[in-house]
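Tokens for chain A. Residues wanted.
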């Protein structure tokens, strides 16, 4: 999990993803898994959520520590 900041320059200005709260992420995942969405919708929702949160420092070079 990302444990520091990882700002990204965009055409709208600097984007700073929110800090990761492990408990909130676990709760989000539990709620998503028990929802009545299709498996495909759950997978796409989780993928988008993880991309937007930029949860992992080494999975995305824009947020990797230098």
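Reply:
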């Amino acid at each position: 999990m990302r444990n520091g900041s990882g700002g990204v320059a965009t055409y709208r200005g600097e984007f700073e993803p929110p800090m990761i709260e492990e408990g909130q992420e676990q709760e989000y995942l539990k709620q998503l898994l028990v929802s009545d969405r299709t498996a495909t919708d759950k997978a796409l929702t989780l993928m988008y959520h993880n991309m937007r949160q930029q949860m992992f420092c080494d999975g995305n070079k824009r947020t990797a520590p230098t």
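The first strand starts at residue 8 and ends at 10. Strands lie at 8-10, 13-15.
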